[in-house]
From TrEMBL:
<feature type="transmembrane region" description="Helical">
    <location>
        <begin position="60"/>
        <end position="84"/>
    </location>
</feature>
<dbReference type="InterPro" id="IPR052020">
    <property type="entry name" value="Cyclic_di-GMP/3'3'-cGAMP_PDE"/>
</dbReference>
<feature type="region of interest" description="Disordered">
    <location>
        <begin position="408"/>
        <end position="447"/>
    </location>
</feature>
<dbReference type="GO" id="GO:0016787">
    <property type="term" value="F:hydrolase activity"/>
</dbReference>
<keyword id="KW-0378">Hydrolase</keyword>
<feature type="transmembrane region" description="Helical">
    <location>
        <begin position="133"/>
        <end position="155"/>
    </location>
</feature>
<protein>
    <submittedName>
        <fullName>Metal-dependent phosphohydrolase</fullName>
    </submittedName>
</protein>
<keyword id="KW-1133">Transmembrane helix</keyword>
<dbReference type="InterPro" id="IPR003607">
    <property type="entry name" value="HD/PDEase_dom"/>
</dbReference>
<feature type="domain" description="HD-GYP">
    <location>
        <begin position="218"/>
        <end position="413"/>
    </location>
</feature>
<keyword id="KW-0472">Membrane</keyword>
<keyword id="KW-0812">Transmembrane</keyword>
<dbReference type="Pfam" id="PF13487">
    <property type="entry name" value="HD_5"/>
</dbReference>
<dbReference type="InterPro" id="IPR037522">
    <property type="entry name" value="HD_GYP_dom"/>
</dbReference>
Length: 447
């Protein structure tokens, strides 16, 4: 504790002292306090704090705030906080601070709730007690956030604005979800079914939170997998560094205009981000070659969609994205590769990624070519619609840029606005034969 700044030590000591003062009336009241509920709820808090990622501490504290008077409600939080898991040292100081913080927050919530609703709530009283319960839950969250902000200010020297304003919005969401659960626990506590039925209410929330947590961790693992693959491509092909993320972003813009949402939208983001993962199978010397490619070298590079498809074949969550990785260089007129598909034979995701890929290639500065302004790139895509690109996808991109704009990797001119798309500047030609619109025959252009 003595390694902390003096202001932080004084702040924590004041919080502990305030929590002790709030608990003193309950200790002095002795038998007048319902110690049975206090001990039972405190025991549940201990179990919740010891279990990894257990989401039930907050609803248990709220149930205590609704069932018990101030002081006693604060005592419910203390054993669990003192026995909880702590990842960083000094553990004893963090536990002591957590106990004081939780106790003060529970006391404040109990006081606020008691001003608007009775301690014994029956089922008919539930609707009338709901508003005081939600207000009390918000008070609990505000007290916790305010106390946390004080620690950040005194211990880490943060400004009050960053210490309190940043965490506040996110801190107000859980109480709105857990407040009704805590109130239902309090209602059942005084019902004929008693405390066992009241605590059973917490089981569905525990299962639901566990499932949601698992989904979040799985999603994070998916994103980490994609990032690792993209970083490997970027390290190998310096000409297209950052290109993959931008293609994923442009693909999402197009998809939203087409009404794609939910899991398919996420799959399309992965498709755009991983469309060039097959470059990992292409010799680095070809990807970094400065001069024109020979026909044989071009054929080697044109294998990268098939390499990419094989690389991600076993990654189940990519699903529909695999088709886009394989076919994003196909063209509507059948002159693309690797299979020369035509029209609607080309999967929808591949038609989206093809437009996003060419658009970013044109609007990004490469070592051998300057970025084109957004309106010029759009004009090129429109000119190639129906032959190289699906007109519906090009129109969707144009609408999305009108609405959201675009910020290329490197602007072609510092005076050029980032998102003007109303001008229509014609080009002399669509693209070089055998290369996507807006690219040339060099490996960096084969984005």
């Amino acid at each position: 504790m003595w390694a902390l700044p003096a202001a932080a030590r004084a702040y924590i000591a004041c919080a502990v002292l305030a929590a002790a003062v709030c608990a003193l009336p309950a200790v002095r009241a002795g038998a007048a306090v319902p110690w049975g509920p206090v001990l039972l709820l405190a025991g549940v808090c201990v179990v919740c704090e010891r279990l990894p990622r257990c989401p039930l501490t907050l609803p248990v504290l709220l149930a205590g705030a609704f069932l018990l008077p101030p002081g006693a409600a604060g005592l419910v939080a203390v054993p669990g906080a003192l026995a909880g898991r702590v990842a960083q040292r000094p553990a004893w100081l963090r536990r002591l601070w957590h106990a004081a913080q939780s106790s003060l927050a529970a006391n404040a919530a109990s006081y606020v709730y008691g001003r608007g609703a009775p301690r014994v709530v029956t089922a008919p009283d539930f609707p009338h007690a709901l508003v005081p319960a939600l207000v009390a839950a918000l008070v609990l969250a505000l007290v916790v956030t305010a106390l946390d902000g004080g620690v950040l200010v005194t211990a880490e020297g943060r400004s009050p604005r960053t210490a309190w304003r940043g965490p506040l919005p996110a801190a107000l969401v859980p109480p709105l979800a857990h407040g009704p659960t805590g109130l239902m626990t309090a209602v059942l506590w005084h019902s004929p079914y008693g405390p066992p039925a009241a605590l059973l209410v917490l089981l569905p929330m525990a299962v639901s939170s566990w499932v949601q947590g698992r989904c979040r961790r799985e999603r994070a693992a998916h994103q980490a997998t994609v990032r690792a693959l993209v970083q490997a491509v970027d390290l190998k092909d310096r000409y297209t560094r950052g290109h993959s993320e931008r293609v994923g972003r442009a693909s999402v813009l197009i998809a939203r205009e087409l009404g794609i949402s939910g899991d398919r939208l996420e799959a399309l983001r992965f498709a755009g981000t991983l469309h060039d993962v097959g470059k990992l199978g292409v010799p680095t010397r070809l990807l970094r070659k400065d001069g024109p490619l020979t026909p044989e070298e071009r054929r080697v590079i044109e294998l990268h969609p098939e390499y990419g498809h094989e690389m991600v074949r076993g990654i189940g969550f990519l699903d529909e994205a695999r088709a886009a990785i394989l076919h994003h260089h196909e063209r509507l007129d059948g002159t693309g590769y690797p299979y020369g598909l035509k029209g609607c034979q080309i999967p929808e995701f591949a038609r989206v990624v093809s437009v996003a890929d060419a658009f970013d290639a044109m609007t990004s500065t490469r070592s051998y070519s300057r970025a084109r302004p957004v309106p010029v790139a759009l004009d090129e895509l429109h000119r190639c619609s129906g032959t190289h690109f699906d007109p519906a996808m090009v129109a969707a991109l144009a609408r999305a840029l009108d609405r959201h704009g675009w910020h290329p990797a490197f602007a072609p001119d510092p005076q050029e606005p980032a998102v003007p798309v109303s001008r229509n500047v014609p080009l002399d030609h669509c693209s070089a034969p055998g290369a996507p619109a807006g690219t040339d025959a060099r490996p960096g252009g084969r984005a």
